[in-house]
Design a protein that fits this description.
Layout lengths: L6 H40 L4 H4 L1 H18 L8 H8 L5 H38 L12 H23 L4 H27 L9 H35 L1
Length: 243
């Protein structure tokens, strides 16, 4: 088989992955949207200041993040059983092509589908609230600077759960979340221990400038280092299964 990356093979893989996972994407998206829309509508009808109903973009980002975690956490669904794993690994495609296909459908394709569905639910919510009240609610607009900031947080989170889906055979969403919790806890206690060793009484005597620099370093690490790191982890796991 040709070892070069083939766009036609990626497209064929993407069609396969979408056909096998679109019902799951729709189910997750519709469930999240329905629950939030119900609470959003109730809040708007019962509150003199319908903040949830007017902050459409914030709702869009929050709901997409929740649904996106579920979709990314259940990628590589063929790895859940031995039979499907063997069938998937024998597909005539490169490892990187299989990774790209899963990345595209659980990331880019999902975001497009979710945005369209959110727009429909948003119109429904606006119609109900404006029909029953005198509120004037504007349609959401995702194409703002806030969307860029959202992507800076969403892409690393998606990368982590995508890697978890490739790494864990059983209930990857749970084990990925549990691993994140344990690692975060370990980092917290490690930093706390360093603080006690360096500073008196464990007080981190940072200046405001130090705090700003530290936060910026962490933000840049999360934005630019975590995604490629965990993409590479997912790629290696697929490669390991093939071997």
């Amino acid at each position: 088989m040709n070892t070069n990356i083939s766009l036609s093979r990626i497209i064929l893989l993407l069609k396969r992955d979408i056909s096998e996972n679109y019902k799951y994407i729709l189910a997750i998206s519709l469930t999240v949207l329905s629950v939030f829309t119900i609470f959003q509508t109730i809040d708007a009808l019962s509150d003199s200041r319908p903040e949830l109903a007017t902050q459409q973009n914030n709702m869009y980002f929050s709901e997409m993040l929740i649904a996106g975690i579920f979709v990314a956490g259940m990628a590589f669904r063929d790895f859940r059983t031995k039979e499907k794993t063997m069938s998937y690994l024998t597909l005539p495609a490169q490892t990187i092509e299989k990774f790209i296909s899963n990345w595209l459908y659980s990331g880019v394709i999902f975001m497009i589908i979710f945005t369209v569905l959110f727009g429909i639910f948003n119109l429904l919510n606006i119609f109900i609230v404006e029909y029953l009240t005198d509120y004037d609610i504007s349609f959401f607009n995702p194409f703002t600077e806030d969307f860029v900031n959202f992507l800076k947080a969403y892409i690393p989170i998606h990368a982590v759960f995508l890697a978890g889906a490739a790494w864990f055979k059983r209930i990857p969403l749970f084990f990925t979340s549990f691993a994140i919790f344990i690692i975060s806890l370990a980092i917290f206690f490690f930093v706390l221990a360093i603080g006690y060793m360096i500073f008196d009484n464990g007080t981190l005597a940072y200046t405001s400038t130090d705090k700003i620099i530290s936060v910026e370093i962490l933000k840049n690490f999360a934005t630019y280092a975590i995604p490629p790191l965990f993409w590479f982890v997912a790629f290696l796991k697929i490669k390991e299964k093939e071997v």
